[in-house]
Amino acid sequence: MVNDGTGDITHGDYDVAIDNVEAGTYVFAADIQNSGTQTGINVMLFDSGWNPLFSSDKIGHVKTTFTLKKPDRVRIRAFQPGVTISNVIVERADTYAIAAGGG
Question: Residue 7: how many CB atoms within 10 A of its CB?
């Protein structure tokens, strides 16, 4: 997903939503690039109530875990102009650990 700066962030033009995510702990991983001139937050994750689950100002590969207490929607946002998010993984932490050779 790319934030090219031509859309309206308040209307979700730079969001990708994953619906019907079950309650549980998840891994979010992605590659982040920023070709823009702004610094600060590059990627944010929100639940359906716009509560932040994760934010990062890092460039390169980012990875975190987050927990949903109930089934919900997860939104991933390229937060500022020039940000590209690729190779996105949102996977249950238990199956991610098995696939990655851990756990």
Answer: 13
Residues ≥6 apart with Cβ < 8 Å to 92:
22, 24, 25, 26, 27
Instruction: Map out the domains of the chain with their CATH numbers.
Output: 9-96 (2.60.120.260)
Judge if pTM exceeds 0.85: no
Question: Is the distance from CB of 26 to CB of 68 less than 8 angstroms?
Answer: yes
pLDDT one-digit tens code per residue, 1-20: 788 777 776 666 767 888 99
**Which tens digits make up the pLDDT trace of 45-59?**
999 999 999 999 999
Q: Are 16 and 78 in contact (CB under 8 A)?
A: no
How high is the pLDDT of residue 57?
Answer: 95
**How would you class 5 by CB atoms within 10 Å of its CB: exposed for 0-12, middle for 13-18, buried for 19 or more?**
middle
Which token pair is 89?
């993984």
What sign does the CA torsion over 10, 52, 88, 18 have? Answer: negative
